[in-house]
Amino acid sequence: MNVTHLHCSACGKHYEARRLHNLCECGKPLLTAYDLEAASQTLTKDSLKSREKTLWRYREVLPLDDDRNRICLGEGMTPLLKAERLGAQLGLTNLYIKDESLNPTASFKARGMAVAISMAKELGVEKLAVPSAGNAAGALAAYAAKAGLPAFIFMPQDTPLANIIECQQMGAHVTLIDGLITDCGKIVAERKTAEGWFDVSTLKEPYRLEGKKTMGYELAEQFDWQLPEVILYPTGGGTGLIGMWKAFDEMEKMGWIDGKRPRMISVQAEGCAPIVKAFAAGANTGVDIPDAHTVASGLRVPKAVGDFIMLDILRQSGGNGFAIPDAELLAAVKEIAAAEGIFVAPEGGACLPALQQMIANNEVDQDERVVIFNTGSGLKYLECFGEVAR
């Protein structure tokens, strides 16, 4: 609607909007630019009060031109819940959980796929393909089904069963691979031209990011346009982290918020922590993880194409990164559930031990507004709790 162009996140090269693009010719992600002055003529704080309770309420800063191509299952406007009992246990007065498990397909991935598949439909895509650790696959399968487009999905063999069944029931073509998400990505890259697939991998097309950024818009709106001091975010491919930061920048340019930013905290699993290790080492790209492993499948991303963007965000915001052992993140799922009645995904559970470390290190003040992102439902990871159940 108000898109002016696409531009490379690394080299800055501009690309024409309204055409299909994957990565820049330099191999880095493309970002969508808007005429924010034009957008702000109709997208105002007051106008939002009467709009639909989905992410499409931010229509003017989303890339779709024709609403007839919109693929919507009710995604967005998830609850921001004050975690009073958990906060009291931690000695915090303003702890919140942004619960993304209430999205269609029970994860935040629905946001990105809603916008990406709407754009794919608008731009004439005929076949879609994605490598996934689980939840992105389920979201693609759902939105592709709604759009009437075939979806080709490649997942590791040990992907949670709920994700596999979900994709199969949605009619997607599912292939399980003996390897990691990076191995699945190589298959899509090698075959997409011959098969006629459009690759909707994380940050390898520009529009999933636009759906994910709406988490940042919602957070600002739910806090009455005052951003929290701390955001803990489970980080795999990192689209949500990058998207929220983009949203904050857009909102500041439209005059909705000031220049103050939350401290962005990247939370990863101890068995796969390329961003956390790179941040600690002062590196500009993620470190190599040769034997990535964790029960939190969404965190098992050994190489993220947007790693350099995430590291820059952590440093700009005065943030930090934490790598959490599997035993601790699984124990945290139960702790959050028992205190707040939310069965979080293991990825979301990882945020609690990270927050506990921050408290022990005096990195959080008692009255600061702290937001934990729960990116999905624990019901999609029942295998992780098998031993506990027995």
What topology emerges from the helices and strands here?
Blueprint: E1 3-8, E2 14-15, E3 30-34, H1 36-42, H2 45-48, E4 80-82, H3 84-90, E5 95-99, H4 109-122, E6 128-131, H5 135-147, E7 151-156, H6 161-169, E8 173-177, H7 181-195, E9 198-199, H8 208-212, H9 214-222, E10 230-234, H10 239-253, E11 263-269, H11 274-281, H12 307-316, E12 320-324, H13 326-340, H14 346-349, H15 351-360, E13 370-374, H16 386-389
Parallel strand pairs: 5-13, 6-7, 6-9, 7-8, 10-11, 10-13, 11-12
Antiparallel strand pairs: 1-2, 1-3, 4-5
Helix pairs in contact: 4-5, 5-6, 9-10, 11-12
Mean residue pLDDT: 96
Assign a percent range to the helix content.
25-40%
Largest sheet: 6 strands, mixed
Give the termini distance in whole angstroms.
53 Å
Q: What order do the helices and strands follow?
A: EEEHHEHEHEHEHEHEHHEHEHHEHHHEH
**CATH 2nd-level architecture of one domain:** 3-Layer(aba) Sandwich
The CATH class of one domain: Alpha Beta
Approximately what portion of the residues adopt beta-strand conformation?
A: 15-25%
CATH topology of one domain: Rossmann fold
- Radius of gyration over all CA atoms, rounded: 19 Å
- What is the total tally of β strands? 13
Shape: globular
Strand order of the largest sheet: 4-5-13-10-11-12
How many H/I helices? 16
The unreliable regions are none
Structural class: alpha/beta
In short:
The protein is α/β, with parallel strands linked by helices. 38% of the residues lie in helices and 15% in strands.
Walk me through the structure.
With 390 residues, the chain is α/β, with parallel strands linked by helices. It has a domain at 80-107 and 208-389: Rossmann fold (3-Layer(aba) Sandwich), CATH 3.40.50.1100. The chain contains 16 helices and 13 strands. It has helices spanning 36-42, 45-48, 84-90, 109-122, 135-147, 161-169, 181-195, 208-212, 214-222, 239-253, 274-281, 307-316, 326-340, 346-349, 351-360, 386-389; strands at 3-8, 14-15, 30-34, 80-82, 95-99, 128-131, 151-156, 173-177, 198-199, 230-234, 263-269, 320-324, 370-374. The strands form 3 sheets. Strands 4-5-13-10-11-12 form a 6-stranded mixed β-sheet, with helices on both faces. It has a 4-stranded parallel β-sheet with strand order 8-7-6-9, sandwiched between helices. β7, α6 and β8 (173-177) form a beta-alpha-beta unit. The mean pLDDT is 96.
